[in-house]
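Re: beginner question about structure tokens

> Can someone show what the tokenized structure looks like for a real chain? I only ever see the sequence side.

Sure, here's an example I had lying around. Input first:
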Amino acid sequence: MMTADMSDENEREYSTRVQTCTDTPGDKDFPMMHEDMIRKTKTNPGLVNTALTVSLRKFHGTLDEVRHRHPLLVGKSIAITRKIGFSDVIMPGEVRNDFYFSIHRGDFEKGKKTAQKNVEARVVVLDDKGNEMKECLSAGSGELNGDEYKSFIMYHHNKTVWNEIVKICLPIDQFPLCHVRFEFRHCSTQKPKHLFSFGFIRLHDGVTIRDGKHELILYK
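And the corresponding structure tokens:
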């Protein structure tokens, strides 16, 4: 992992090897590979002679001040990631209504198939009339919000682990009326995607749903 003293404003470069998990059946270790690397529970030499180099530089001051001093380095196209939570001083008129959820894992039956499924999870937000909300799902800073979110697909794996985090961006007045629907499809190379299961969770039930793990009942 990349660790160093960043107490000054000098630019520093860090290199890390590109990791691979193609030696494991179905790439099942991919979602937790970073955790294994941090805990050093598994060793993976990575791809030989293949590395990712990242340059880091720390700036002091507000965003406007940094842009004024370094207009070429910090332009309008730079993605801004806000810190989760409020600052120590909350300014008048500052409103924030971010809701994050993590698609952790799913356990699915093989059914009558001889091979396990290739499962894709699709996420949409619907209002109380069943209409899909537009441009309310964000997969990260720097990208436009989307109407839906689709996970990566694990090949032949019925106990898929995704660990993907998505942010819901909704006006405060619409938040209590909406729910999140999770759709699961089997993806075949020869046939169209087949919806085989779905589940949902309300964003508000008198109060905002609690932080923590939630197990959803899936319907066929």
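Each token stands for a local structural state, so reading them left to right follows the chain. The two ends are 43 Å apart (CA to CA).
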